[in-house]
Design a protein that fits this description.
By secondary structure, the protein is an all-alpha fold. Helices cover about 55% and strands about 0% of the residues. The protein folds into 2 domains: about 5-110, Fumarate Reductase Iron-sulfur Protein, Chain B, domain 2, CATH 1.10.1060; about 115-195, no CATH class.
């Protein structure tokens, strides 16, 4: 168990709802869920969820901490906002689900090998280095995240898309040598680091 997770368990002593209210984006809305199921019925990925938002909220209120934070469910959200539009109580469901995903990631409880988590991490690490996304390096990192052989297979499967992006000047092979970046990447890294420190302090992660 990570230190941050151990400290959270000790601090909240089984009151998972309070932990979510304090540490998860828009978490104070969870207790307003009336379990109508509209969010689950509105989600385009509804049949594929391990736990729908409705169930996640019920599990939070029931104190099912480990089941929630290790669930694959939060990472399935595509940010279509259909649930928010249709929720009769206007709960910010999308934000809560992303907040739970981020919190579980920071506690190192998110499921290992979860594709959305892996791609989000690659995207973030790519951005932080220069303040801009290097599309070529990002694509290669995603293709080869499961090894060299699988990377070659992924690249071959996506070659038509890659060629189309190059023709549209959305992908430049020369970016492998550096690529476009913000003028003062070091300052951006400091800003991001400070923002993360403030957010982690608010969530009790440091």
């Amino acid at each position: 168990m990570s230190d941050a997770n151990s400290q959270a368990v000790a601090r909240y002593k089984g009151n998972f709802l309070k932990e979510v209210e304090d540490r998860v984006e828009e978490g104070h809305w969870v207790k307003m869920c009336m379990q109508c199921g509209v969010c689950a019925g509105s989600c385009p990925l509804g049949p594929h969820w391990e736990h729908s938002p409705q169930k996640i909220f019920m599990m939070i209120m029931a104190g099912k901490r480990e089941e929630v934070l290790t669930s694959d469910a939060m990472w399935m959200c595509t940010s279509c906002y259909g649930c928010i539009v249709r929720c009769p109580r206007k709960l910010p469901i999308t934000h809560i689900m992303h907040g739970l995903a981020n919190y579980s990631h920071r506690l190192d409880l998110a499921p290992k090998g979860q594709p959305t988590r892996e791609i989000a991490t690659i995207f973030w690490n790519n951005f932080v280095k220069t303040g801009r996304i290097n599309e070529l390096k990002f694509s290669l990192s995603v293709y080869f995240k499961d090894g060299f052989v699988q990377g070659i297979k992924n690249a071959l499967a996506m070659q038509k898309v890659g060629m189309g992006l190059m023709k549209a000047k959305r992908l430049n092979p020369m970016e492998i040598f550096g690529g476009h970046r913000c003028k003062d990447a070091a300052s951006i890294q400091k800003i991001v680091a400070k923002a993360r420190e403030i957010e982690d302090r608010r969530k009790g992660l440091i």
